Amino acid sequence: MAAGSDLNREDDTDDMFDDLFNKYGEVIYRRNDQKKPARSAFDDDAESLSFAVAMAKTASDVKGSDIRVLFVKPLVYWTSFFIIVTAFSRPQVDALASRMRDTAEERFGRRATGDSKPNSWTLLDFGDVVVHIFLPQQRAFYNLEEFYGNATPIPVTLDR
Asked: Does the keyword Metal-binding apply (predicted)?
């Protein structure tokens, strides 16, 4: 094929995506590029929020500190919520991650990908909810709250 036909094919593809965007307003990235049937984005967000709040409360139960839940969906395409937690030792990081994994699996039937050993920054990726567990120095250094400063903070009442 001539180089000119490749350029036309790219233009056609761009036009196709523009038409889809104009018609549907957003592009949704999901596993195998398929939407779940009979579910709205609002339902997905409500379910994700419920899960995020449960994970934040679990972190509180294990004495995690300065727990923040942020709605980041308008800012990133890969998740809806961040949970940011401070732990004060690597054993506490391990305890937080372990309890959160257990709660997610037992109550919600969900499994996290991410770090499996305690570190100064441990990440649990549940897809729609991503948990960041930091030691204080790393939390201050990476400062995700400022980096995602336009995220909407979700007020969560945590019993102590």
From this structure: no
